[in-house]
Prior knowledge:
Chain A has 417 residues and is an all-alpha fold. Chain A is built from 18 helices and no strands. Helix content of chain A is 71%, strand content 0%.
Amino acid sequence: MLLLLVSVIAGFALARAIWPAPRQWSACDPVRLAVAPVLGTGLASVAYYLVRLVGGGPPVSAIGTLLLFSAAAVGAAYLRAPAAEADPLPQGSKAPIWMTALAGVAAALAAISFLLMVAAAPHGEWDAWSIWNLRARFLFRAVEFVSPFSPLIEWTHPDYPLFLPASITLFWHGAGEESMRVVALLQAGLACSALAAPFTVIRHVRGGALAAVTALAIAGGSTLVRNAATLYADVPLAACMAAGMAAWTKNEGQLFLIILLAAAAVAWRHIPYLLAGAAPMLAVLGIFKLKSTAANDLVNSANAANYGSRLADLNRYWITFWGFISESLTFSHFLIPPVLVFAVWLALVRLRQPVPRTRWIPLAVAGAQLAGYFLVFVATAADLDWQINGSMARLLLHVWPIALFGVFLVSADLTPE
Amino acid sequence: MYARAVGAVLIVAAVSLASTGRLFTQVADFYTQAPVVDGVTEFTGRLAQLKAMLPASGVAGYMTDPGTPATDTNAQAEYHLVQYALAPVLVVYSTEQRYVIGNFHNRISTGSLREQGFELVREFGNGIALFENAKAK
Lengths: 417, 137
C-alpha cells in the first residue's frame, strides 16, 4: 500500500516536472493530482519492466528503481519550480451547492458499489484472472522472465502491454504478498483518475458548474464502475486516455496515440512537444513489442490472410453498425440512451460561441477511436457476434470520459456572460 | 443560472443518479447473497495441495471429462483458473506432458486412464488429481 502511495506522489512530482509550477500549491495542481495515479502507476510498471529486462531480480532492485525514478521526478519538479510561471487562474463560475451535492451523491454511490463488488469478487472477472492478474502472478512468482510470455499460453495474450500487470507485481512485492486489496486499490485510483482528470480540467477552464455536471455524467456511467470492479484493463485505459500512458496499457491505446498525434498535428500544431513527451514510453513499448514473440490477434498471419474478404463483406459493416447503435442506446443502463441525453444537453445549453478549434480535439479523437474500433470489428477473424457481444460495452467505455470531457468543453456556460 | 441550463443539469443528474442508484441496489442485493468465499478463491483453493507437489516451474498437461467440447465455456473457465492457481507452472490443455492435471466432474475410473498410460500420482478430492504420463517420462 505504501509503495502505491509513493507512486502517486511520484506521479504528482512527474506532472510538476513536465508542467512546472511554483513551489506552493498552485491553481492547476488539482489537475496534476488527478493524473498522478496514472503517471505513478506508469512509472512503477516501467521501473519493474526495465529491471526484469536487464536481468535484475525483484523485488529489491525493482522497488529501488521506482524509488530512484520517484526521487528524480521530485528533484526535477523542485528544480524547475523557481523558474516556473504561475498557473493560469481558474475560469468560469463556482458550482451551486446543490450541483456539488448531486455530483457527490453519484460519486458516493459509485464508490460504495465498487467496494461491494470487489468485496464479493476480489479476483475480478474472467479477463482479470485469465489475462491481467494472471500475468501479474506469473511475473510475481516466476524467477525467470520467459514463462510469463510463453507461446504455450497464447490465450493469455502475451503481447498485451504491461502497464497493469507490471505495476500490480511491483506493488505486490512492496506488500510482500499477492494482495487483491492492492489490485482493487489500484483500480480505484485509476477509476478516480478517469473521473478526476476531465473534472479538474473542466473546473479550471470552464468553471465549477460545468465541472460538477462532468463528474455527474462520468460517475453516472455505471459501466465504468462495473468494469473497474471486474479488475480488467478497460477502466485503466479510459483513465490513461484522459491522463497519459494509453499505449502502454492496452493495444487499443496505441491506436489512440496515433489518433491523438494526428489530431494534434491538424489542430494544435504542437506535435513536437507531444512526440517528445510520448518518446520515453514509446521506447519502452517498442522494446516490449520487439521482444514479444506473440503476435497480436489482429495482425498475426493466420488472421491477416483474409482481411480483404472480410473488409469487402458489406454484411459485416451492417452487423457492426447495429452493434454500435444497440450498445450506444443501452450503454451504462441509463434510463434514456446517453447519446440522447447529451444531444438534449447540447440543445438546451448550446455550444459556446465561438468554440476554439483545439476544444474539438477530445470529441474528434473519441470519434476517430470509435471509427478505428469499427474497422477492427469488420476485419477481425473472431466470430463477429461474439466479439461485439463480449467487447462493445468495454470499447465504448474507453472513450466515455474523454467524450464527455469533449461535450462539456464545447458547451456554453451555464450562467449568463 | 438560466432556466434551460437548470433543466439540462437536472436531466443529466436524473439519468446519472438513476444509473448509479440502480447499480447500487443491484450490487447491494448481490452482495448480501454472495457466498462468503468467492468462486475463484474456492476453486483455486482446491488446487493448493496439488501446487505444493508440482515443481516451481515447468510445463504440466491438463485434462477434463472425456467428450467435453473445446468450446464449453465452463470447461474453459476452469482450465484458465487452474492456470491462474498454478502459475508460474505453464498448464497446457494437452496430455502430452509428463505430469497431467485432471479436473473431473464425472466419475472416472483410474483403471481406464492407466490403460491409456496415466498413472495416478495423487487424488486431491473435488475431482482434482495428478497423473504421470508413462509415455512422456
